[in-house]
Amino acid sequence: MGFLVWLIVGGVVGWLASIIMRTDAQQGIFLNIVVGIVGAFIANLIFSGGTINNAPLNLYTFLVSLVGAIILLAIVNLVRRGSVR
């Protein structure tokens, strides 16, 4: 059940981050899920230094995951285009 929650929340977080960073037209559902999950992992390492499985799903962890996904998309945009946008 936890894996399914990761996929759903990762998809939502990745989709919201792609809308904020204006990359939504460039990526599909699969990349949204990947961006959401990897972004959540990055943000968890930055903000709490622990593993992603230790935190319960609440508004704080959702927002931290969203920030991580935005950071990930900003880095990808910087590498691809030379600007964050």
Can you walk me through this structure?
By secondary structure, this protein is mainly alpha-helical. The protein has one domain (2-81). Helices cover 72% and strands 0% of the residues. The protein has three helices and no strands. The chain has helices at 2-20, 29-47, 59-81. 26% of the residues are buried. The mean pLDDT is 79.
Gyration radius (Cα, Å) is: 12 Å
- Total DSSP helices: 3
Overall structural class, as computed from helix and strand content, comes to mainly alpha
**Helix content bin:** over 70%
How far the N terminus sits from the C terminus, by CA atoms, comes to: 37 Å
Number of strands: 0
Residue-averaged pLDDT: 79
Order of helices and strands: HHH
Number of domains: 1
Write a short abstract of this structure:
The chain is mostly helical and 85 residues long. The protein contains 3 helices and no strands. Helix 1 (2-20) packs across helix 3 and helix 2 packs across helix 3 (59-81).
Write out key terms for the chains shown.
72% helix, mainly alpha, 85 residues
Question: How is the topology of this model organized?
Answer:
Layout: H1 2-20, H2 29-47, H3 59-81
